[in-house]
Amino acid sequence: MREMKVVEEIRAKVLKAKQKRDTRSEELYLTDIVGIYVIGGKGSWEAADALYYNRLDKLIKRASSNTLKALVKRLD
Asked: Are 26 and 14 in contact (CB under 8 A)?
């Protein structure tokens, strides 16, 4: 619960900075959140894997969407 409270407080600051279009503060707060989970190399693999697999997921979904659109268009 303590971790959640700390991270949610930082996330609120990130959202406020984003609303103000304060990209410098937004990046700093996001870096703070990442730092909570990636300290001294601990958590680095998990973070790297999460970013990589998230990227793969987006690429696969985009490819699937494009394929579906092409197939539907071919039916016209």
From this structure: yes
Token readout for 32 is 């703070």
| CB distance 17 to 29 below 8 Å | yes
User: How many distinct structural domains can be found in the chain?
Assistant: 1
pLDDT at 37: 86
CA-only gyration radius of the chain, Å:
18
Q: Is the pTM of this model over 0.85?
A: no
Of the chain, the percentage scoring pLDDT greater than 70 comes to 100
Q: Mention every residue, 6+ apart, whose C-beta is less than 8 A from residue 17.
A: 23, 25, 26, 29
Beta bridge partners of 42: 39
List the domain range (segments joined by +) for residue 42: 1-73
